[in-house]
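Record 1 of the preview.
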Amino acid sequence: MVATQPVRRPAARPARQAQPRQANLRVVRSDHRIRVVGMLGTAVAVGLFTVLFVVAALHAVLVQTQAQIDAQRAANAAVQAELAVVNADLARADSPEGLEQWAIDAGLVLAPEVVILSPVAPDTLAPPTSGNPFSEAVG
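->
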């Protein structure tokens, strides 16, 4: 017969008493320097954003103003060109040739000969003999 051997089990470990495990913690005082650096960094970031925003706004105003200036310059150039044409027409009209053309257009005729008039003293001319030369009865 076969002999059976007893099964050996390891002995149960005795239960450890629950000892509180020492935590590797310590009390840390708040570091004022970290807060100051954080606030300074935030202030610098906000300031930089504000400056960039203002620069962008000023650039937009500059571009808009430049467009208005360019439009005004174009209008001034057109008015100056028209003024040059009008001045040229005025100079031509004030010239002797222009005055002659204006007289012809008005219906005046050229005199057959040049007559030079000399001044006459008052009361030296005889009264007209035929009456009023400008009346309609004279023909």
